[in-house]
Design brief:
Elements (H helix, E strand, L loop, with lengths): L3 E7 L6 H16 L4 E10 L5 E10 L2 H8 L2 H10 L8 E5 L6
Antiparallel strand pairs: 1-3, 1-4, 2-3
Length: 102
Amino acid sequence: MSKITVIASFYPKEDKHNNVREILFSMINPTRLEEGNELYNLYEENNAKGESKSFHLFEIYKDSKALDIHRNTTHYKDYRSKIIDLLSKPIEVKVLSPIDIK
């Protein structure tokens, strides 16, 4: 089985940036403690004025089973139930399988 990389993008509603940031931040420690998680990093994209525009998670799991386990954790289900109404559009999730990585 090969590693699975996930890129998830979040676009908060105008007045919900801090709420979205807080929810995403709450996912970092519990996810990094999952046995199959190898990397879980949160990034922020800023507009030309330096204001937060969007958030992006970059995640690596040891295999697809580890990703499935992640998606069935209490912290994952809790964050999903809280964050949806705070976003201006649906979460963009890309699940990538490696072809040639180093």
